[in-house]
Amino acid sequence: MERGCVVLLLVLLICSSVLALTSGVGLDFELTHVDAKGGRYTTTERARRAVDRSRRRLAASMSSTGHGDVRAPVQRAQGEYFTEYLIGDPPQRAEAIVDTGSNLVWTQCTDCLAAVADPCFEQHLPLYNYSASRSTKPVPCTDALCQANPYGHFCDRDGSCFGSGTIAGHLVTEVFAFQSGAADLAFGCVNASSIDPGSLVGTSGLIGLGRGRLSLVSQTGAGKFSYCLTPYDSDGKAASHLFVGASANLAGESPVVSIKFVKYPTDPPYNGVYFLPLVGLTVGETKLPIPSSLSISGRMAPCLARGDVKKKAPRLVLHFSGRADMALPPVNYWMRVDNFTACMAIDRSNNRMSTIGNFQQQNMHLLYDLDQGQLSFQLATCSKL
Ligand SMILES: *[C@@H]1O[C@H](CO)[C@@H](O)[C@H](O)[C@H]1NC(C)=O
Ligand SMILES: *[C@@H]1O[C@H](CO)[C@@H](O)[C@H](O)[C@H]1NC(C)=O
Ligand SMILES: *[C@@H]1O[C@H](CO)[C@@H](O)[C@H](O)[C@H]1NC(C)=O
């Protein structure tokens, strides 16, 4: 990594080496914004909820950085998008937050009901019951997949793989069916959790898209994935999409920009996370070097009359090494807070690292090409993909 350059963390803020994904086949997921489900929120409530989730994510990542030494596991808090899938034979319904920053697929299992300490959090759908599935298989603790478990690995008395951290449970394999496509995956069948009960907003678990061996992308050998998030302001009416494998492609007229990923850390909590080499920012007409610009947003969130956002908002361009620029459309950094006002949706970073959050990624199709080691993106109308 170049000196003085700041890395950007990309957050959406989701089997004994079985490769069930035949080449050329892709998995498609429909993503729903967490505020689009259940009760309808007013614009002001949604803005407040988004800021609150974002601050909690930041707090969770800060609390894990003791004395500048980033070691403790990050508690993945406050997801933004979830997807529905089917698991087992016969299939059972489950929902998961999709997270590009984590490395495991997991869901809560019926053993939660028997847990004494740290029982599971509440979820909308029934718990996954492996006793009712013909296709479930334990992963032996001698398996390489067990050793790759980001939550640690232990041998249970019966030789099965057990892991324990902020969540605890067994690693097992199952058949997963998504909106389009199916795969055999090893995943955490969780029976205890100390995760903040609200953080998964009633879903049953997580789908990790990180680089780690047990993420959905690694297990399927997909090599690439892409997603496109519909505008936050569309009230979640149009679903967003995630494509894993062959169906992950950029298309259309809009220019494509590519940025090489930065060499990634191999230690927790940032192992498996995607980093980009941010070298500068342009705000309005001023080009700011990094890292002195990290405090630009400070604590004042500037606000504008909504109608003025397109005319008056200073332009914001993120510059990456390799002369790659990401010019953000104003709606991707000005959040509507009521019918008349929009405020800047950029908050202070906690350390040398900044995050491109999902608000910044609206109506942008982002392709994570792991084989090429780069992120490519183009502006897109995500509801039309
Ligand atoms: C799980 O499935 C088994 C087998 O069908 C059934 O006997 C058991 O009651 C189920 N457990 C729960 C909690 O639903
Ligand atoms: C459930 O979790 C506990 C630890 O919290 C573990 O000792 C136990 O074996 C687990 N049970 C199952 C069936 O996974
Ligand atoms: C905001 O606008 C919507 C749609 O035009 C309207 O239904 C709502 O009552 C307005 N809210 C306020 C607080 O003015």
UniProtKB/TrEMBL annotation:
<dbReference type="Pfam" id="PF14541">
    <property type="entry name" value="TAXi_C"/>
</dbReference>
<dbReference type="GO" id="GO:0006508">
    <property type="term" value="P:proteolysis"/>
</dbReference>
<keyword id="KW-0378">Hydrolase</keyword>
<keyword id="KW-0645">Protease</keyword>
<protein>
    <recommendedName>
        <fullName>Peptidase A1 domain-containing protein</fullName>
    </recommendedName>
</protein>
<feature type="signal peptide">
    <location>
        <begin position="1"/>
        <end position="20"/>
    </location>
</feature>
<dbReference type="GO" id="GO:0005576">
    <property type="term" value="C:extracellular region"/>
</dbReference>
<dbReference type="InterPro" id="IPR051708">
    <property type="entry name" value="Plant_Aspart_Prot_A1"/>
</dbReference>
<dbReference type="InterPro" id="IPR032861">
    <property type="entry name" value="TAXi_N"/>
</dbReference>
<feature type="domain" description="Peptidase A1">
    <location>
        <begin position="81"/>
        <end position="385"/>
    </location>
</feature>
<dbReference type="InterPro" id="IPR033121">
    <property type="entry name" value="PEPTIDASE_A1"/>
</dbReference>
<dbReference type="InterPro" id="IPR021109">
    <property type="entry name" value="Peptidase_aspartic_dom_sf"/>
</dbReference>
<keyword id="KW-0325">Glycoprotein</keyword>
<keyword id="KW-0064">Aspartyl protease</keyword>
<dbReference type="GO" id="GO:0004190">
    <property type="term" value="F:aspartic-type endopeptidase activity"/>
</dbReference>
<comment type="similarity">
    <text>Belongs to the peptidase A1 family.</text>
</comment>
<dbReference type="Pfam" id="PF14543">
    <property type="entry name" value="TAXi_N"/>
</dbReference>
<keyword id="KW-0732">Signal</keyword>
<dbReference type="InterPro" id="IPR034161">
    <property type="entry name" value="Pepsin-like_plant"/>
</dbReference>
<dbReference type="InterPro" id="IPR032799">
    <property type="entry name" value="TAXi_C"/>
</dbReference>
